[in-house]
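Q: What does the assembled structure look like for these inputs?
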Amino acid sequence: MKRTILFIGLIILLYACVAYSQERCNHEGLIMSFLQKITSKDYIPTLGDFNEYFDNHSEIEVGLRDELIRNKPNLSLSDDIKSKSLAIELFLKHKSVQKLIAQKNLKNSNWIIINQYAKGSATIVYEIGVVGSQEIIKMQMINWKNKDRCGIVDILDSSNQSILIKSPE
Amino acid sequence: MERELSDHTTIAGDSLMSVGFESHVAGSTAVALAESEIGAPAIGMCVGGITNLGNSYIRGARGTDLLDAAASGTLWGGVSGFAMMGFSEIMGIPVNVKTGSGLIEPFTGRPQTVQITLGEWLFGTQSSNISNIIANQGRSNLTMVLTIPVINLISMPLSVPQPMYLNSYLDFSGDIANYTGVGQYVNGTLDWFDYYSDGSSVNRGSWTAVSGPWGSPIARGRHTIQNGQMGLDTGIPGYIRDGADFYIDIFPDPSYEIHPDGNAFGTMGCIGIRESGVRSLDLYNRIRTYTRRYNVLQLNVNY
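A:
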């Protein structure tokens, strides 16, 4: 009897571990938390928020900073987590995002996930909108089995053009 | 001269007496070989080629090495055969025997000569049939004997077995460079080497690659790439360059990968390949093929 209980307990523990690992990267929760935070009143985009919500292998922020430094050699940027995140700032300036934020604030609507689909073998794209608006944006999330990575990989507009990454010339 | 020598050969039953022909005695094996003309080199080529092929196989040669050995044996066997032809002529000169019949040629006024075969010269005209058979057989045997591989082995160098392919490995090497305002990165190449049994390594491909500066470059030392721990089409912008999109985990720490250097210049520490899509995918396919067969590919990092 004791042996049976022990065996069942181990099985349950195994499934719990599996369930926990799958929930370590909660895409929907991460997306909603991100959108709620950055669209709150008087929000200031910070590097700390970028590090929290974006994939830790993401080159988006470093790429934008690098481009800025190349164009303004005398400028120096801090690595402090309270320093400005160029990626989030760029996201907030995009016309589609501004339309959605305006709609949300006007009608006190909520962000909604409209659709999701795989892009490549390691990412999932979530189509995001606001109740009552036709505008959408797409958030590409890392979804890589066996890799300890979680977060935003890229943000796209409705025509699948990256809002954060320049297309190669 | 060669035609004259061949005309001097007679077979049992032929007339021993002939008017107007210079007589020679096939008294030497050299003359017999010369009478064979093409036979000697042809037999030499066949025997030399087959025997050298067998010798090389026993010594461990395989594939195109065997073809090289066979061709070499064929060539030298033929050369030996031709050489023996010339040698036989030289040998034949002092043993040519001419005999006169005592008669005078009707048109030239010169003393008439007769043609005597080897057998006749050795055993007398009465036993010419048997003699000729023996002589002819002896001539054939001597042709064989004088073009056997012993000659080939003496006259040409032994073929050296080619070194055997053992395995392949990757080498990421380069120089530490400064990325202004950011930090250090490794600017180098990823090279594919084939390693052989004689200790030599042959470079079979080189790809421009970087590690860093957005994170610490991959650690120096030995790493491995393992079968199945890679894939195409990640969809991640930083992994896509010129249409090539893949990742290859590096062990013991698979948070480091080999992938095309997409998006911004450099990587978070991974080895970023900065080549065309075609070349990058060529690298991926080589690694994938190798690890499928051999399970593990070694990666050495030096900078």
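The first helix of chain A runs from residue 2 to 23.
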